[in-house]
Amino acid sequence: MRRDFIAQVLIEMERDPSIVFLTGDLGFNALEKIKEQFPNRFLNVGIAEQHMVGMASGLALEGKKVIVYSIASFATMRPYEQIRNDVCYHNLDVKIVGVGGGYNYANHGITHHTVEDVALMNALPHMYVLCPGYSWEAREAAKAMVRHTGPAYIRLGLSPGIAYEKKHFIFSLGKGFVVREGSDIVLVSTGNVLDVVQATAALIEKKHKLSVCVLSMPSLNPFDGKLLLKYARKAKGIFTIEEHSTTGGLGAIVASILFTHGVEKKAFHAFGFPPESFLKAVGDRNYLLNEVGLEANKLAHDIARYL
To answer: 292-301 long-range contacts, Cβ below 8 Å, gap at least 24?
Structure first.
């Protein structure tokens, strides 16, 4: 996914000479082309994320459009004060790119797990939040992010994700996509678990003979409430699935919209990382996803119990 994102960033940098790219000592075997093609607009700041965001803010004040790139936990949590006070307060044209959101860097331990970033970024004024689900969404999100003026955060997975039929989809900020048509259940997905969600939908239809709609929501702020409500009002149940804490992420966004618009007498549950404690298990991404119940067979079983 990140390679597709970087490929689009290269196109945008060729188009717009004001774009500057900063990395926090990350991106080997991914950022070389940017460094080679735009040596005067690329800088490895080192493991100094707070300084990097401060530098990006200064460049933005001088008219540059700045992309800041690091592992998601370090791109969001370590420089949060600078993102809030420098970037968002002044509404600067700085784009924060968090690589490996969720458990993509699972084997590196808790320091590299990122299940709070969407909640943190979504709480900030002016901040747009994007969480693409597979390679096409990542490319389109890169284009939309760069062409938007103002703060933005994009969360990238490491795997390409599973493709879906794009039909006549046009990516734009604040819009979601219908990946699978259905009427009994709505599964709402964001980010790199889209493949798990699609597998879950297929299992539910096969085992429980229910018609399942899958919505992919790569834009979390702004959010496509209109699309959500269109399908939620007709369904028996609405379920969100995300590689993020159930506090402050997709589940919270969807629950708020449903309650605000009176769509509350439905089965509803938010699947994600339980916020009560840290996950201390050690293993790869799939192992950790299984530990928190984000596995297709487990999800299909649990969703059926709510209906």
So the answer is: 294/193, 294/196, 294/241, 294/243, 295/196, 296/196, 296/199, 296/200, 296/202, 296/203, 297/203, 299/196, 299/197, 299/200, 299/241, 299/271, 300/200, 300/203, 300/204, 300/207, 300/208
